[in-house]
């Protein structure tokens, strides 16, 4: 139903969209039978709805004289309003259908910088190719910040590293992948652990100068913890960078870094990649969303594509 205010008179009331549709049909055809055929309803039903609309508005809308149908002043006042209301309703219907069919929409996705570099480009390309009308908003940050943004509703989905820094029952997490970490270095610098080594141990990083991520970066905490577990404190050549900066510093020969294998695979020929000897280092990437609110339709579709990758 729709509320009409002051239509040619001091009147406030409620009418039905269907009644407006019937009214416009009669106004345009100036014939009740042809109007009924136009809107696919029996003529007596249409006439009853027009009379009900007139009673609701407290004014006659048509002059009925010897089969000739004309609009009254009240009808003339109502006609442009009714047309606009019906047009707006049709626009709204198409907008909702487009959202439901993913012609339009928005996905707010959070991810750690390393995931943005390694995992997301191919998945987001596939999603965009399938749903070009859906706007993608990507926020890069650490897992701690992403969890906070999810909790306050600023993100629909987030790719985070498990275990979460602050586990929360308000979030649902689904494990997406388990990725091994590798050591990257400049091809022009001595290989970590010695020339010809196909793998390197964490213990071999003692004495190596590391290019280290900023505080709050998941990879920083993981690398430092692994070094300390081997009984030494890592030495930093430079610290404080994001993923692209760290790779750039490694290419320049400032030191070595521990990065995810997917990131190393995209780094190109400018770096040497050496696997970590067993048991190695791994990280678990999970897809997280709020437990109390289902993600929007477009976000659910991206979630499905990520889980099926």
TrEMBL record:
The keyword Methyltransferase does not apply. It comes from the Bacteria. SUPFAM superfamilies: Periplasmic binding protein-like II, Winged helix' DNA-binding domain. CDD domains: PBP2_LTTR_substrate (cd05466). InterPro entries: LysR_HTH_N (IPR000847), LysR_subst-bd (IPR005119), WH-like_DNA-bd_sf (IPR036388), WH_DNA-bd_sf (IPR036390). Residues 15-72 form the HTH lysR-type domain. Gene3D superfamilies: 3.40.190.290, Winged helix-like DNA-binding domain superfamily/Winged helix DNA-binding domain. Keywords: DNA-binding, Transcription, Transcription regulation. Belongs to the LysR transcriptional regulatory family. This is LysR substrate-binding domain-containing protein.
